[in-house]
Write a structure and sequence with these properties.
By secondary structure, the chain is of the alpha/beta class. 54% of the residues lie in helices and 13% in strands. The chain is elongated. The protein starts with a strand and ends in a 13-residue tail after the last helix.
Length: 223
């Protein structure tokens, strides 16, 4: 059976050395290279084109951007996230960037080996026990995107959101727009309903997805 070529990128030297030693001792794998930052991962993809790059998400460099570039440019190389982060948001961001799998540090060598085999075979692998949370998170994110895409705001609502994006309080928004605090609170309630979110922080996140505050990003109903 042909070996799976792999590379490991992590900014923890002891862990990196251990991973390299463990997988060099495995007959099923061919360790091509190791690195310690996002830039190394991109260079490894370019120079060695391993079947799978196993990389941390929390290390120097623009990790998510690097994952996207590898996924777009090097079709024969799959990226597998190997991280201590149990954040569902981080997992979703990594998968949307182009990762084919997400393995939590603390998993066994057998689990990591299985994950490598899975992503090499064009399957997706997420650490058991964590996968349900990620799937639920992906569904929520998809629903929010669908809501945002169909959402149309009035000119006044966009003005409120634009000021919210600039970190303004309700009172500051009221003063800026020459309306009452009560009216601002009313707009916030309407915005949460329209965007299908629960609080002002999620209003900001949804507004960012809509592109409010960016040139050409406003999509008001002009009412």
């Amino acid at each position: 059976m042909e070996k799976i070529s792999v590379a490991f990128v992590d900014d923890h030297p002891v862990l990196l050395t251990g991973l390299e030693a463990l997988f060099r001792s495995e007959d099923k794998f061919d360790v091509k290279a190791v690195g310690c930052c996002a830039g190394d991962a991109l260079e490894i993809a370019k120079s060695h084109e391993p079947n799978v790059i196993v990389m941390d998400l929390n290390m120097p460099g623009k990790v998510l951007e690097t994952i996207s570039r590898i996924a777009a440019r090097y079709k024969g190389t799959k990226v597998l996230a190997f991280t201590a982060s149990t954040s569902v948001e981080n997992a979703i961001a990594a998968l949307e960037a182009g990762c084919r799998g997400f393995v939590l540090k603390g998993s066994s060598q057998d689990d990591l080996s299985e994950a490598i085999h899975k992503v090499h075979a064009n399957d997706t692998y997420i650490t058991p026990g964590f996968s349900n949370k990620v799937i639920d998170g992906l569904r929520t994110a998809a629903l929010r995107r669908a809501t945002v895409q169909s959402c149309r705001l009035s000119t006044r609502e966009e003005q409120v959101v634009s000021l919210l994006l600039r970190g303004k309080t309700n009172k500051e928004i009221a003063d800026k727009l020459s309306i009452s605090d009560k009216t601002v609170k009313h707009y916030m309630t309407v915005l949460m309903q329209k965007m299908n979110v629960r609080n002002r922080i999620e209003v900001v996140l949804a507004a960012q997805e809509m592109g409010i505050g960016k040139p050409g990003g406003l999509r008001s109903a002009h009412v």
